[in-house]
Design brief:
Chain lengths: 730, 730
């Protein structure tokens, strides 16, 4: 009988062993570790990355690491401590697997014990100001970050824990956090939004680490497990089919991390899910699209809320590139970035990158930037964003033309906005966001009130404002219901690239249409021709701002500077933040304004038909806490029902301050004429010093096969499709 | 008879040959060329420098180079053309010697022929606005530049010219220019000033190139040859004995070029002059002092008029370093800079540098910056400038304390001014100069009216302004008569460095004394303690501005922001250019202001005894042409007869925007007390979070051997000499 019982025990234990997968299996697989250990000795970049992690962790080994009771907002001690704690636990877990040294497991275990004691005692964080408060942190999002990393850390030392230790950790450190998300905040957990991606990844990661299939299912399919939310739905609905993330590249930079980390754990846990292949390898498309949406210096384009300090050397992108290299293989463009990151993750993808970098001397210092057009929306709407590019390496010019959906809670009211980057610099700028992330004195590192009040408003962008009111009257919920519509584009010829889009919902009685032409003339000169129509049955005041970044060099028109007294340009909708530095009344003229940025001159040449006002403004008014940057803009104001703005933005000349040379410092645009402009078509003539350019475009019929005609006494055009550009040497 | 005549001819020819030295002998010596040719094949940096010159010149070989009739101001076509022409001639002359190819001599010759035709026809330049107009250029200074380079170019092809060609060039291209300087502008030619250094070098260079001893003597000893002016006097009087150039490093950057070039030609022409050894090798001292007066990024400190774009990679410094290496030998610090310049001159010094760079892999990426104190004045006045330094490489902190003479026509009204550089950035700034050099649209590239009206005024600096009036009432001629006086300094301990200076002439009834302490605490924290006394028998309004460069983080005191309407801080003396963004009334408190620059926080903690006003201002008012940068300042205003400003400027914390960490973001200064303050001594106590610092200083007796005592109920100090700093851990 006794032996029978023993046999039964053994059988049961065997079943348990069989049912319980071997750990680790979130970030690393057990069988990955041996090879990794060998590669660390072989490849310098992997080695230095390992040493960095080791140096960081070794400072804490054998010490009592503080796990403080939550008190401070972002930037404060307890916030930063819990943040550095989860990284420390993850890194120490990695080291335990790589080195086999028990001290690293002990470090993690002791910290998790402290969390096991702390977490059940926690309620809403004392500094919580959002609708989704956290426990360890002021917002639940940061708790989710903690869950992803603490979950991986636990998985990495799982095999070093006794059953009773496991119980303490799982019940104490993890269950209260998971319960809080699932039971107290299911609505938030079920959102399709970057916060919820983190939340699902957090719950799911803990599920995999603790062998809890229920948690995994909640993470994959939502709190109701109805697949309307959860990680799979987040993969299906937050990206367009070509990988554009609806919140924009700055937020994808952040969201790519839980996507990649949880997908890795899922791949290890259940390869049959084939998660990395899901939706035609959407995670790979997302990564590449996100990297294409950076400037040559690696900074993410400021689409929607975005802090301009962030570039692709952030930890999120290091992780994403190492994982992508594991799952999708090595790619040249990613090697370029990995080299700049100068760091890889301690996994097989990181090892593969380090091996390539050690072996190859032909890795380009430049990411292969190209013209890229992305749809925005999960089911192929006509919304999207086009990035037109010309030139290469340092001399790349990138025009961003945004006709997306609103972009969720971080969206700005900037329908049909454009931005220009050139020579590595932001030339026509987007304010980005008003936030000092991680700086406690600046409202606990949160988004500042000026973010919604100014940075998100239409006037802070480079697109049309009617009647000093933002698009959708500045109501994000209304904005979420609509999207702009791409009319056509043609980027087949790098010397003549064109995109057109329209927006009919931002103002109820105004149809806006913008055609952007990015040209390279035979001389090599680059210029943009920007044709912006506002059609309405009613009279409006139309403001078209150009947020320029550079030194004012010369205006061709007389203006009245406000030299002794400044007032604001307006009272609301962002206008209250603008000082009116100068104003001009112009009539039937070509108004030209030249500024200098770095080594290049830029001239905006604006056709003024009838009369208009021009303002030079600078942000910084109504800013009692000095939260805003002080940035200049040129604003062209016209009144009427239908109005067309034709602007030529020219990149010209070279300025060398060191050697005191300045060449081609003057605009070549001599005149702009509108030859015809009505519902059907617009014909624009740009007279330059050495050539004439004609733009013929249709305004209603965008069928690529239809023929169009125009003739007058001196000109005759016939073209097929929605546009034609002719350049004639004089 | 026939053979006798022939013999006589030969003898005469021999005499002529004997009397005429072999050319070239200005920039290169004939015997230098063969070795140079060999070295070009051997050393990569010399080779690429040669190829750059060759590529530049080859574009013009066989072409008809335009020598236009002068018309435009700086930045315009004719200005830039004549400027590029003289470089082209010089470079082509070099190539003729190195390659032996006649086409390079022909290029120079043809251009000089055109100048020989043009120059005799020229009068005052049509764009001349200065008192010293040029012929080829708007100002005579640029004509002098042309003479130096055209003179060297002619010398380089001298041997390739027929006697009649020489006559055409010497009479046509050169004589009118020399005559214009000597006969029409002797007063200017005889100045002790960077323009006249160029003028003398120009005349002297042409003298050496054309074997005209008269020109050489005029250049060396002045238009009256009385040695009161001319090149030797310029070497004797424009530098202090330790190599500080009275106009400051930005202008020495410019003046070092004619000094070095003409000295080279003199050395070749008449080695007995031993010009490079003159005044204890003053040219070498000048070069090293000038390089010590740069920031870690190579930009010259903005002492006096200075454009902040200029760094030590300019052509002037490339030339100076190559020549210094020829004449004074190779030095490690210069190799560091030569490597950053990535270019050498085609002479034996350039070859020696290229050889070292090819052979050595231990050249530091950092110039050996150190604390350096320079006297200003040819005969050892008490005026000067101290640069206190702490830390090294990227973490270098440099405090500039200026107690110089006025600095001639480019001087600013900034007695006892300080500037701080840290972590590669300018933290407490100097506006520099208001000028867009080489940009025609900005007043022909000249100094803008705002240069004198704002940039030179006291309020644009970090020093005391009494009664909203600049030092010397803003009169440069008065300022030239006086200088500040150093009281003492002690820089022997890098952790406690101190300099004190006084100024008694800037305001007729005010004695100003400033003591600067640059401390490194045992914790490694760096801070400045700035004690600024104003002693007067009469009541005054005293303003102490801190021009800070960074993001406003937090002020400890309540202030009234001007959110809807801005007015200027004052009406004149630079105050009219400042918008008053906020003002505060403070009383008996510690007023603290924290800002962020790059990765570091900086806090100014100001002791307010009794009452004071504090203003936050920004430059940019009264600037109808948008010539000024918009830069913030904190201004502390006190009223009274005697006033003491005690400010602690603390460098603290780290901000990492990419990884969202912010540490040590708050000031550690808790309190500042003045324990005693009178004519005799000042005792200051700074209470910090973890220690107390006491500063005891004398205000009248600076004898290093005298003993001083202070005691009250709780404190007792005894010290020797003019100061004592005690740091006590709490």
């Amino acid at each position: 009988m006794r032996s029978f019982v023993c046999l039964l025990c053994l059988l049961l234990m065997g079943l348990v062993l069989f049912a319980q997968p071997q750990h680790p299996l979130t970030f690393l697989k057990k069988n990955e570790v041996t090879q990794l250990r060998k590669n660390i000795a072989l490849y310098p970049l992997l080695n230095t990355s390992f040493q960095e992690v080791k140096n960081q962790v070794d400072k804490y080994v054998g010490k009592d690491v503080d796990v403080p009771f939550p008190k401070d907002a972002a930037g404060g001690y307890t916030h930063d401590k819990h943040k550095s704690n989860y990284t420390l636990m993850f890194n120490s877990g990695l080291l335990y697997n790589i080195t086999g040294e028990a001290k690293y497991a002990t470090l993690v275990k002791n910290m998790l014990f402290k969390y096991a004691k702390l977490n059940p005692t926690l309620g809403k964080h004392p500094q919580a100001t959002s609708a989704t408060p956290g426990h360890l942190f002021w917002q639940a999002l940061n708790d989710a970050n903690w869950m992803v990393y603490a979950g991986m850390a636990y998985d990495l030392i799982y095999e070093a824990c006794l059953p009773k230790e496991k119980k303490i950790i799982e019940d104490g450190a993890f269950k209260p956090e998971v319960d809080y998300f699932i039971k107290d905040m299911p609505v938030w957990f079920d959102l399709l939004h970057n916060h919820a991606v983190w939340a699902c990844a957090g719950v799911g990661m803990i599920g995999i680490a603790t062998n809890n299939q229920e948690y995994i299912d909640l993470a994959l399919y939502g709190s109701k497990k109805d697949k309307k939310s959860g990680f799979i739905a987040q993969m299906d609905h937050l990206f367009s089919a070509d990988g554009y993330y609806t919140e924009g590249p700055y937020y994808l930079r952040y969201a790519i991390l839980p996507y990649m980390l949880f997908a890795t754990a899922l791949q290890h846990k259940d390869p049959t899910l084939n998660i990395f292949a899901h939706r035609d390898s959407i995670l790979h498309k997302a990564l590449i699209t996100c990297l294409q949406q950076t400037n040559t210096n690696g900074v993410f384009f400021p689409i929607n809320d975005a802090i301009k300090d962030k570039d692709y050397t952030t930890n999120e992108l290091v992780t994403a590139i190492s994982i992508s290299s594991t799952e999708y293989g090595i790619e040249d463009g990613l090697l370029t970035i990995a080299k700049k990151q100068n760091r890889v993750m301690l996994n097989s993808g990181g090892a593969a990158i380090a091996k390539e970098i050690a072996a190859r001397n032909d890795i380009s210092p430049y990411f292969p930037y190209k013209t890229i057009e992305s749809v925005d929306g999960d089911s192929g709407t006509t919304a999207g964003v086009s990035i037109l590019r010309n030139g290469k390496n340092e001399n790349l010019s990138s025009l961003i033309f945004k006709y997306t959906t609103h972009g969720m809670s971080h969206g700005h009211f900037d329908k049909l906005n454009i931005n220009l980057f050139d020579d590595g610099n932001e030339i026509l700028t987007d304010y980005g966001s008003a936030r000092f992330i991680g700086i406690e004195q600046k409202w606990g590192g949160r988004y500042l009130p000026e973010n919604v009040a100014y940075a998100a408003q239409t006037i802070a962008h480079n697109t049309l404002v009617a009647d000093e009111t933002s698009h959708f009257k500045g109501d994000g919920e209304v904005g979420e219901k609509y999207h702009s519509e791409k009319l056509f584009s043609d980027v087949s010829n790098p010397e003549i690239q064109v995109v057109a889009a329209k927006e009919v919902n931002a103002y109820k009685d105004i149809r806006m249409q913008r055609n952007e032409y990015m040209l390279e003339l035979p001389s090599g000169k680059k210029l943009l021709i920007d044709v912006f129509h506002a059609f309405s049955a009613n009279k409006h005041q139309y403001d078209l701002p150009f947020q320029f970044n550079g030194q004012f060099i010369k205006a061709s028109f007389p203006y009245q500077p406000n030299t002794q007294n400044l007032e604001t340009l307006g009272k609301a909708n962002g206008y209250q933040f603008l000082w009116k530095e100068a104003s001009a009344k112009v009539k039937d003229t070509l108004a030209q304004f030249t500024f200098l940025n770095g080594k290049s001159y830029y001239t905006i040449s604006s056709l003024i038909q009838d009369s208009a006002a021009i303002y030079f403004t600078r942000s910084g008014a109504n800013d009692p806490n000095f939260n805003l940057r002080h940035e200049p803009a040129l604003i062209i104001r016209k009144n009427g029902s239908n109005q067309t703005f034709v602007n030529v933005i020219e990149i010209h000349g070279k300025y060398d301050a060191v050697n005191e040379f300045s060449t081609d410092a003057y605009s070549s645009v001599k005149k702009i004429n509108i030859i015809r402009n009505d519902d059907k078509m617009t014909i624009v003539e740009v007279v330059m010093a050495a050539q004439k350019i004609w733009i013929a475009q249709t305004n209603e019929d965008f069928n690529p096969d239809n023929l169009h005609y125009f003739s007058n006494d001196t000109l005759k055009f016939q073209w097929k499709g929605p546009y034609q550009v002719n350049v004639h040497k004089e």
